[in-house]
Amino acid sequence: MGRVVGDGACYFQVADLLVDPTYANQGIDKLVMDELIQYLNENAGVDAFVVVITELTQIPLYKAYGFELTYPNAYSMKWTRNEGIA
């Protein structure tokens, strides 16, 4: 399973690329990425910014599709909504 979320033109995120452990190491992750990249090639604007947040072990998969580490030129940040804060 995998999906692309974004504004439909300039900014996208590859998200939720998951493969059932029963089917791991069978290339399913690459089949899903092939479809996601095809979608981006057909729908993302030229020079669109596509990001992915991944576990360290999955970096080679994304590099194989042309993704580059952004550090040190950019950093990732996160915000978590805590209970009681509106």
TrEMBL record:
A Pfam family recorded for this sequence: Acetyltransf_10
Superkingdom per UniProt: Bacteria
InterPro entries, A to Z: Acyl_CoA_acyltransferase, GNAT_dom
Molecular-function annotations in GO: acyltransferase activity, transferring groups other than amino-acyl groups
Record-linked SUPFAM superfamilies: Acyl-CoA N-acyltransferases (Nat)
Domain N-acetyltransferase stretches: 1-82
The protein, known as: N-acetyltransferase domain-containing protein
Originating species: Paenibacillus radicis (ex Gao et al. 2016)
Lineage: Bacteria, Bacillati, Bacillota, Bacilli, Bacillales
